[in-house]
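quick one: Palmitoyl-CoA bound model?
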Amino acid sequence: MDFLAVQDFYPEDFAWCYGCGRMNSSGHHFRTRWNEEETLTEYQPGPEHMAIPGFVYGGLIASLFDCHSTGSASLAFYRQAGHALGDETPVPRCVTASLKVDYLKPTPLGPTLRVIGRIAEIGRKKVVVVSELWAKDVLCARCEAVLVTAPASMLQNSSPS
Ligand SMILES: CCCCCCCCCCCCCCCC(=O)SCCNC(=O)CCNC(=O)[C@H](O)C(C)(C)COP(=O)(O)OP(=O)(O)OC[C@H]1O[C@@H](n2cnc3c(N)ncnc32)[C@H](O)[C@@H]1OP(=O)(O)O
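yep, here:
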């Protein structure tokens, strides 16, 4: 891999997410990393991610924001605790409590999409991430997401095996 992404370090049982789980062979495999003080997820949509010819399906954009935001929250909690990716301490896993997406402009199908996130708020178990989605130099969508550390109630179904 050309860089370390937080999803590479999710505990195996919690790495099955359709959007970003490395264990899910059918998923998108979104990967999120720090870019200095911002977080970054890049993704190249394929022709199957079409809304109408030439434009990206909005559900894919929401998925991209979703996993970018959970990944950003994990990165933020991990860094706040003094850790860096590659440490032995497990990376915390977060779930989405709220995801608000504003579609500002039609997103062209073709360019690699760049999602850039800012940690707007970080608490004991909650993170607010504000992100923008860019296609080349066009700002196409914006998102505000609330992420919360994964509840123990999800543990029983964390792995399909
Ligand atoms: C022993 C360890 C076990 C670990 C175990 C690991 C299991 C590892 C599973 C991994 C799994 C990965 C999954 C992939 C990522 C998904 O795709 S997740 C799928 C979509 N998301 C979900 O299914 C989440 C469903 N919702 C829930 O489970 C619960 O509502 C939540 C989100 C955990 C919150 O419940 P809660 O912990 O009781 O939250 P609560 O204490 O009331 O609130 C915490 C904070 O969040 C805020 N908040 C809560 N909900 C909202 C909302 N809707 N809007 C705005 N703010 C909100 C609260 O205001 C509060 O803020 P502060 O007062 O701290 O400022």
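Residues 14, 17, 70, 93, 95-98, 123, 125-126, 146, 148, 150-152, 154-155, 158 surround Palmitoyl-CoA (CB under 6 Å).
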